[in-house]
Automatic annotation (TrEMBL):
Residues making up the signal peptide according to the UniProt record: 1-22
Keywords assigned by UniProt, alphabetized: Signal
Gene: LOC120032455
Domain Ig-like, residue spans: 121-200
Species annotation: Salvelinus namaycush (Lake trout)
Name of the protein this chain belongs to: Uncharacterized protein LOC120032455
């Protein structure tokens, strides 16, 4: 039996229960504190912020390692910011890489000395690959598309048998006859063509 896995580009939109951080009117509210995503996927993390009256916000940015992601060469061409009129901010990272695994924080700076705030802790982004786990009994074999962390966004798993879709739903498992020489492919339903990831 030939087994292969393939991870497709997965866009993760996060609008979960908010996490509020801050004191004395200074706050950053993240939509989630953890994301698990596949290589090559696109992720979005969002937050909103508040601050005491009498201040004017002059600068806002997301960062890791104290560096504004827009200025970090490791993220060049892969990072975009989006904001709205209610102090909501979204960070979008495309073409996810293993090195992107980190804690992402949002910071805003005002026009007054000492008038700045960082939301801490931030959003932890974890990288994972798809793997196939094989469970065999005397009458059948169950293939399970697994990851090292739980993928964010309730993804849809797709199974291919000899390049043809045989199962397309939310289940990461597929049961086959024990004796078969067919090839099987596991993927996550996404936007672009599957990324390469093989196992024997």
């Amino acid at each position: 039996m030939a087994l292969r896995t393939a991870g497709s580009v997965l866009v993760v939109f996060l609008w979960s229960v908010a996490v509020v951080l801050g004191q004395d009117g200074w706050r950053v509210k993240y939509t989630t504190q953890s994301i698990c995503a596949l290589k090559g996927s696109t992720v979005e993390m969002s937050c909103s912020y508040t601050y005491p009256s009498g201040y004017t916000v002059t600068t806002t940015f997301w960062f890791t390692k104290i560096v504004n992601l827009r200025d970090d060469p490791d993220y060049k061409g892969r990072v975009t910011y989006r904001s709205d009129t209610t102090n909501g901010h979204t960070l979008k990272i495309t073409d996810l890489r293993e090195s992107d695994s980190a804690e992402y924080k949002f910071k805003f700076i005002t026009d007054q000395t000492g008038g700045k705030y960082s939301g801490d802790p931030g959003v932890t982004l974890s990288f994972t690959d798809l793997q196939v786990k094989v469970t065999t009994t005397w009458w059948s074999t169950t293939l399970t598309c697994s990851t090292t962390c739980t993928l964010t966004g309730n993804p849809t798993y797709i199974w291919y048998r000899n390049s043809k879709i045989v199962q397309e739903n939310s289940s990461p498992s597929y049961t086959v006859d024990l004796k078969t020489e067919d090839s099987f492919y596991c993927a996550v339903k996404g936007i672009n063509s599957p990324a390469v990831c093989e196992c024997d």
